[in-house]
């Protein structure tokens, strides 16, 4: 990261003009996440492709591999909301960078298969700080369910009939990785898939 990025509050907003030029759609859908490093993203994307090719579940490919910090929310596309979003993004990463450990696969019932993320105090703190920033600046209500960090591999379109076979396959894979969380990433929905809209770096990143 260069000095110019540091000088502007460690916040990088990409293609910010979308707030001003796409008024045919009054609301925009966003969420906030941690993204692993590129090598791990490639590996997890390969798992998603296997889920699509072998088990018919490709919906997870509509977003990059991520750990959700603030679930999807809608925001009016106005200059004022754009400014508030930038402040919220900046304030969502006040602490230092930290390690994140991935270990094998887990599931939610017979609906979702994911890469398991080891829960840590640093990760819990990061999620709370992000949720607080987006509530204070944007009024996004914090998630009421317990925080369960994970990297989704297959979910919405995974047929229950093939779930046992899919789970047998992924649960038999040994997968352990560690990456350093250096920033939080804002993603927006473009009508077809999720794309990166901006980042805010932790101190020391």
**Strand segment tally:** 9
Q: Main β-sheet: number of strands, strand sense, barrel status?
A: 5 strands, antiparallel
Instruction: Summarize the helix and strand pattern as letters.
Output: HEHEHEHEEHEHEEE
Rg from C-alpha positions?
Answer: 17 Å
Q: Summarize model confidence as the mean pLDDT.
A: 90
Count, helices: 6
CATH superfamily: Cyclic phosphodiesterase
Number of domains: 1
SS strand fraction: 25-35%
Say what oligomer this is: single chain
Compile the SSE list and pairings.
Blueprint: H1 3-7, E1 11-13, H2 18-21, E2 27-34, H3 38-55, E3 67-76, H4 79-91, E4 98-108, E5 112-117, H5 121-138, E6 150-154, H6 163-171, E7 176-181, E8 183-189, E9 194-201
Antiparallel strand pairs: 1-9, 2-3, 2-8, 4-5, 4-7, 5-6, 8-9
Question: What structural keywords apply?
Answer:
single chain, 205 residues, alpha+beta, Cyclic Phosphodiesterase, Chain: A, four-stranded antiparallel beta sheet, disordered N terminus
Structural summary, described in words:
- The radius of gyration is 17 Å and the shape is globular.
- Mean pLDDT is 90; it is low at 3-10 and 13-25.
- It has a single domain, classed as Alpha-Beta Complex (Cyclic Phosphodiesterase, Chain: A).
- The protein is an alpha+beta fold and 205 residues long.
- A five-stranded antiparallel β-sheet has the order 1-9-8-2-3, with helices on one face. It has a four-stranded antiparallel β-sheet with strand order 6-5-4-7, covered by helices on one side.
- Helix content is 33%, strand content 31%.
- The N and C termini lie close together (8 Å).
């Amino acid at each position: 990261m260069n000095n110019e990025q540091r000088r502007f509050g460690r916040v990088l907003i990409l293609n910010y003009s979308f707030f001003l030029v796409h008024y045919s759609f009054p609301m925009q859908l966003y969420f906030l996440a941690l993204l692993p490093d590129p090598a791990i993203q490639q590996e997890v994307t390969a798992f998603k492709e296997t889920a699509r090719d072998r088990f018919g579940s490709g919906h997870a490919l509509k977003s990059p591999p991520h750990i959700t910090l603030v679930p999807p929310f809608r925001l009016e596309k106005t200059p004022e909301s754009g400014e508030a979003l930038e402040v919220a993004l900046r304030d969502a990463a006040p602490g230092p960078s930290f390690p994140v450990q991935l270990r094998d696969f887990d599931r939610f019932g017979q609906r979702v298969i994911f890469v398991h993320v080891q829960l840590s105090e640093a990760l819990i703190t990061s999620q709370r700080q992000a949720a607080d920033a987006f509530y204070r600046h944007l009024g996004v209500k914090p998630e009421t369910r317990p925080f369960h960090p994970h990297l989704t591999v297959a979910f919405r379109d995974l047929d229950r009939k093939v779930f046992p076979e899919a789970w047998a396959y992924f649960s038999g894979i040994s997968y352990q990785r560690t990456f350093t969380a250096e920033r939080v990433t804002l993603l927006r929905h473009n009508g077809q898939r999720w794309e990166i809209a901006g980042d805010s770096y932790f101190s020391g990143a």
